[in-house]
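Why should sequence recovery work at all? Because a backbone constrains its sequence more than one might expect. Tight turns favour small or flexible residues, buried strands favour hydrophobic ones, and helices have their own preferences. The token representation captures these environments compactly. In the example below, the structure is given first.
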């Protein structure tokens, strides 16, 4: 199920090399959504970053499929909002 990430917090999701892509859905209860999605790849930690903002994370949630070829992939979701603005990640 969805996981709540409080404002200022982050969650890290490592996954197996067999995983070719991951789906990310971020939303709120109607409050603004401020987040950073980081994909760290391989031993050198090459990083791809998505910074996102939406005024209303219920009406306009963020959904993406992110390609994750190779091994050593880690997805990190950072709630860059203040503590009053939790987000839901699934």
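From this structural description, the recovered sequence reads:
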């Amino acid at each position: 199920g969805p996981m709540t990430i409080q404002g200022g917090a982050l969650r890290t999701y490592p996954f197996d090399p067999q995983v070719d892509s991951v789906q990310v859905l971020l939303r709120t209860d109607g409050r603004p959504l401020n987040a950073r999605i980081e994909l760290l790849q391989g031993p050198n930690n090459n990083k791809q970053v998505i910074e996102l903002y939406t005024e209303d994370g219920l009406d306009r949630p963020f959904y993406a499929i992110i390609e994750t070829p190779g091994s050593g992939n880690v997805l990190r979701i950072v709630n860059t909002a203040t503590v009053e603005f939790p987000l839901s990640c699934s």
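A few observations help interpret the result. The two ends are 7 Å apart (CA to CA).
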